[in-house]
Amino acid sequence: MDDQRLQRLIRMAMEAESLDGTVRANRDAPPGPISIVVWRRRLSWIGGGLAAAACLGVAAVVFRTPAPTGPGGFGRDAPIAIADPAVADEGARGDSSPSQGPDESPTYTTQVAAHHAEPEEAVVFAVFRGVDGSCECVQVDAPEWSGAKRLADVDRHELVRVAFRDPCSAFAPEVLVIGVSGKPGTVGSSRRHAEALAERLGRETFRGRDVSSAAYAALPDLPAGSLVVAEKISIGP
Amino acid sequence: MSDDRGLPDLATAAARGDRAAVDALHRRFDPGLRRLFLARTAGRDEAADDLCQRAWTACWRALALGKYDPARAAFSTYLYAIASRVWLEHLRRTGRQEPSSALTEYEADQLGTDPAADARLAEVLSMVRECLRGDAGGLSEDDRLILREVGDGASDRDLAKRLGVAPSTVNARKRQALERLRRHLASRGVRGENPDQQESFGQ
C-alpha cells in the first residue's frame, strides 16, 4: 500500500472518529452556550475568551490564512436579489428585503452590489450556533475563489464550502455563513467584526427578516460598495 | 424515547436485530452523518438528506443480514464505511466532481458494492484508528501527531513550522510513521493496494 493510500485511510479514519465525537456532543452537551477552544492547523491567529455579549460564554474566534477553494460545479439554486444601497439599508432594518421564515433555509440575498470593475477583497465569517441559537465560535476565512471570481459570482455551495472546509465546531447544529466583499483594505475581517457578528447573530431568530439583512445590520461601518451575502445551514436532525 | 445504553451495548444489540437499539443509534449518529454529507456536498440539504437516507437504508439492511460484527469495528466506523460507499455511488450516479475529500479521493474501485465490503473497510479503518489512538502499532506520540496532521492535509512545511524542525526532517519522520502504520496493517493482513484484498484477515 503506497503512502498516498495510507494517508487517505488515515483521513477516513479521522472522519470516522469525528462521527463518534458528534455523538458524544449530542449526548453530553449541556443546554445553553457552549464554551470551546479551537486549535486548527491552518490558524494564523486564535482568540479565545472573547466575551461577546450574545455568546454569554466563551467564544472562540478563528482567523485563517487564505486557502484556495475547490472547483465550483454547482449552479445557483436560490434566489438572488440585488438592491441598491438605499434599498439595502432598508433591508438591513428588516422591513423591505426579501425574507424567509426562520426555518426556510437556505437564504441567499445580495444586499449591496456596486463597482464590479474594481478589484475586491472578500472575507467569509462562519457563525456556528448551538442548539439554543447561541454562538459557539466564529470562524474567519479569507478565501481565494476558484477562477478568481468575485463574491457576487460565487455560488452558494462554494461559499458554504469555505465554512465546512475545516469547521471550528464539529457540533453546532446551525451555521451562518456570511461573505463580505469590498474594495481592498475596506472589508472587515477584524476581531471587532467577528465580535459584532457573534453578538448580533448569536441569538438572532431571523423571524421576519433574512440572514443577509441581519448580517448586514450586524456588521459595523461597512463602506459603500460592500457586498454581503449569507447562508443559513441547518445541520441537526 | 431515549435509550441510555452505551454505544458498544447498542451496537451489539443492533447487530442482534434489536430494533430499539437500531433506532437509538440512528438518533445519535444521524446528525453527524448528515454533517458529513453536508460537508461533502457543500451544504446542499437535499443531497445530504438523500445520501443520509441511502446510508441508513444500507446500514439497516446490513444489520438485518448480520453483516455487522461489533467486535471488529465500532458502529461509527462501520457507518462511516457505508457512508463512503454511498458517497461513491452518488459520485458514479451523478458523474460530478464534488469538493475534495477523503471519500472522493478514495477511488471508486477501492470499494465493493456489497455489505461485506463495508465490513472489511470498517475493519481496516478500525485498525488505523487504533494506531492513531496509540492502542496498537507501537506508534510514538510524535508519529501519531504527524499522521493526524498528514491526514488533515498538512504539508511538510506546515508540519515543520509546527514542530520547529526542518521540512526534510519532517518528511523523514512522516515516512517513518507511515512505514510503521503500513507494517502494522500488514501484520494484520492488510497488504494490498485495496483493503478489500486483505489476506488472513482477523487472524
How are the secondary structure elements laid out?
The complex is a heterodimer of chains A (237) and B (203).
Chain A: H1 3-28, E1 43-50, E2 59-64, H2 85-92, E3 121-129, E4 135-141, H3 156-165, E5 174-182, H4 191-201, H5 211-218, E6 227-234
Parallel strand pairs in A: 2-4
Antiparallel strand pairs in A: 1-2, 3-4, 3-5, 5-6
Helix pairs in contact in A: 2-5, 4-5
Chain B: H1 7-15, H2 19-40, H3 45-64, H4 75-94, H5 102-105, H6 115-133, H7 141-151, H8 156-163, H9 167-187
Describe this protein with a few key phrases:
heterodimer, A: alpha+beta, 5 helices, about 25% helix, about 20% strand, B: about 200 residues, mainly alpha, 9 helices, about 65% helix, disordered C terminus
Could you explain how this protein is built, in words?
The complex is a heterodimer of chains A (237) and B (203). Chain A is α+β, with helices and mostly antiparallel strands. Helix content of chain A is 27%, strand content 20%. In chain A, strands 1-2-4-3-5-6 form a 6-stranded mixed beta sheet, with helices on both faces. Chain A is globular, with a radius of gyration of 18 Å. Chain B is mainly α and 203 residues long. Chain B is globular, with a radius of gyration of 18 Å. Chains A and B meet through helix 1, helix 3 and strand 6 of A and helix 2, helix 4, helix 5, helix 6 and helix 7 of B.
